[in-house]
């Protein structure tokens, strides 16, 4: 079956700014075009509802993929062409048929604190066209909003702990409009359409619409390119310093240099990089850039679309964050890997020493999205393995010996069934209730095995022996879940009955990735899953559950990585190719695909899925 391209939703950001971007009809909301959900330095304050170039032509406003006229509802335009340039610049082209214009929007972020918008408008008609172009931002959040026009003639906005400015080369129209108290705009569009400028400083707890720009005349066959930027800072003084050194003419070159040098820095550390498949390099770079874009001081959001949010803040999962850290490590970006692990180490843990499953935008524990299974001790496995692999590559120990010993104690003190640790929710967060899960115990085994190696190198023979004992016990327990009749490992045991849960569970592919031996039973399980857990030929499902019924991207990519590790190169290429073909219009990966309609995907994009493509490529 040939799929349509999934809606383009991009992850855009730099060292201090992270956001999603979509002019590809990504979010059904009058404000959901261009930048949507933007955070500065921390994930506790969603600053911006919308940011895009706005174009006024006669009786019409175009902004992002929206066409607005006073007498009717906004129409959603579909881009005629979408692509990503050099892994970081998102580009969409629109035909503005009513006005014989072609509009190409592009956006990119780089460096410390800026996002730049470029809009090229080409006149395809036989007469000159008068158009006005604006930097447009809508701000609506639960904190006070203040705006004014700086001495450099740029709109400056302050809300919460963030200051930012709309920077244009030259503007002669300014609008700062206190709009509705809801999430929906009204007055802003009318005033811009009717040229009712408002330059007076605004202080409001309602919605603020801000725009500044100028008028152009485009001859037949001619074009203009309009540039503007959002620049962020911690104070008005810092912002003014940033503005004074701003040069539009070098931004594109600086951005290309920034991202090219960053990717090369990592790849210079990757062994046998010249042997990597060029077929997937562009896609790997796009997804690698995306996970870098949303890494704010070590906080990795599960997603930025709003699905995995709590109290209007993105959620941080211990599991997902380590998966992303692993991708950075494999791609040679040790700094980002270390930053993520150190962020997790600083988080509060439960009384028994285990990590919480998830944390809110403030970094505080925030459970509740895991079907009331309030343990997820498999994160101990991920953690032990990432610390060990980091030590192998850098010679630096990310976690103190005492912390590793505490986490070992979490597994030793946990309940056990047939030798397996639990009960907990596992990767699929308790779909069958609290359980002693085969895949979880594979991860735990791999992590404890890594800790044994670390303790040995540190001369701690007592803890190394304890690790060995735990691994032996867990391995024996895992073997009791092997289904001889079907030739696969079953899901595991639940805490409410004695019988094994006879369901497949494809996260078992991550077992060997994290250090579990590729024993005969695992090889049999692999053959079983290829035959029985597949959707749309090469997509891999989850655990025979109904949640997101169909193939999941990170499960498919875990299968790809497994195949790569054990010499099944053709199967690896097939799984990677399938994943790339099921990326969104910007090349980023969703969480899953609907089993009933291959043209529908879920959670687009998912940070972990993007990271797993990177990990599978750089493995």
From TrEMBL:
Entry-linked SUPFAM superfamilies: Six-hairpin glycosidases
Q: Which Gene3D superfamilies match?
A: 1.50.10.10
Specify the species: Anaerobium acetethylicum
- Name of the protein: Glucoamylase (Glucan-1,4-alpha-glucosidase), GH15 family
The Swiss-Prot or TrEMBL record annotates one GO molecular function as: hydrolase activity, hydrolyzing O-glycosyl compounds
Q: Which GO terms describe its biological process?
A: carbohydrate metabolic process
């Amino acid at each position: 079956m040939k799929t349509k391209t999934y809606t383009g939703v991009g992850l855009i950001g730099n060292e201090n700014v992270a956001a999603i971007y979509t002019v590809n009809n990504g979010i059904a909301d009058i404000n959901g075009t261009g930048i949507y959900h933007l955070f500065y330095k921390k994930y506790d304050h969603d600053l911006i509802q919308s940011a895009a170039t706005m174009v006024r032509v006669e009786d019409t406003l175009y902004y992002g993929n929206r066409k607005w006229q006073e007498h009717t509802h906004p129409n959603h335009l579909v881009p005629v062409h979408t692509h990503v340039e050099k892994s970081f610049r998102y580009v969409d082209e629109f035909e503005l048929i009513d006005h014989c214009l072609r509009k190409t929007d592009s956006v990119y972020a780089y460096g410390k604190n800026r996002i730049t918008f470029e809009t090229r408008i080409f006149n395809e008609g036989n007469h000159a066209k008068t158009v006005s172009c604006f930097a447009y931002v809508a701000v609506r959040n639960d904190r006070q909003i203040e705006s004014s026009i700086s001495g450099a003639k740029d709109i400056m906005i302050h809300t919460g702990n963030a200051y930012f400015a709309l920077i244009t080369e030259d503007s002669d129209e300014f609008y700062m409009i206190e709009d509705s108290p809801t999430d929906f705009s009204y007055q802003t569009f009318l005033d811009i359409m009717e040229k009712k400028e408002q330059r007076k400083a605004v202080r409001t707890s309602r919605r603020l619409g801000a725009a500044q720009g100028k008028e152009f005349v485009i001859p037949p066959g001619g074009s203009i390119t309009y540039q503007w930027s959002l620049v962020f800072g911690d104070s008005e003084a810092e912002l003014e310093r940033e503005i004074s050194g701003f040069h539009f003419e070098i931004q594109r070159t600086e951005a290309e240099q920034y991202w090219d040098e960053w990717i090369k820095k990592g790849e210079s550390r990757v062994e046998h990089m010249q042997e990597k498949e060029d077929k997937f390099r562009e896609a790997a770079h796009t997804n690698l850039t995306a996970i870098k874009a949303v890494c704010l001081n070590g906080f990795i959001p599960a997603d930025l679309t709003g699905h995995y949010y709590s109290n209007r803040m993105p959620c941080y999962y211990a599991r997902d964050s380590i998966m992303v850290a692993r991708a950075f490590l494999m791609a040679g970006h040790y700094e980002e890997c270390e930053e993520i692990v150190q962020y997790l180490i600083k988080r509060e843990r439960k009384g028994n020493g285990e990590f919480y499953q998830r944390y809110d935008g403030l970094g505080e524990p925030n459970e509740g999205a895991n079907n009331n299974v309030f343990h997820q001790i498999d994160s101990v496995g991920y953690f032990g393995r990432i610390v060990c692999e980091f030590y192998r590559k850098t010679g630096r120990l990310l976690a103190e010996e005492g912390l590793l010993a505490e986490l070992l104690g979490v597994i030793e003190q946990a309940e056990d069934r047939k030798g397996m640790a639990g009960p907990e929710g596992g990767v699929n967060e308790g779909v069958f209730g609290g359980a002693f899960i085969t895949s979880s115990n594979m991860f735990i085994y791999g992590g404890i095995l890594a800790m044994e190696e670390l303790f040995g190198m540190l001369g701690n023979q007592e803890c190394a022996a304890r690790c060995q004992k735990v691994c032996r016990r867990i391995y024996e327990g895992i073997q009791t879940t092997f289904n001889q009749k079907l030739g696969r490992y079953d899901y595991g045991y639940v805490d409410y009955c004695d019988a094994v849960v006879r369901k497949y569970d494809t996260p078992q592919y991550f077992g060997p990735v994290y250090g579990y031996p590729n024993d005969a039973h695992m090889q049999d399980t692999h053959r079983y899953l290829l035959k029985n857990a597949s959707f749309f030929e090469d997509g891999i499902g989850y655990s025979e559950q109904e949640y997101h019924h169909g193939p999941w991207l990170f499960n498919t990519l875990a299968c790809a990585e497994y195949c790569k590790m054990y010499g099944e190169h053709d199967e690896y290429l097939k799984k990677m190719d399938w994943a790339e073909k099921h990326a969104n219009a910007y090349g980023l990966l969703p969480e899953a695909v609907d089993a009933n309609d291959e043209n529908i995907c879920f959670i687009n994009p998912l940070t972990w899925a993007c990271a797993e493509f990177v990990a599978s490529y750089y493995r």
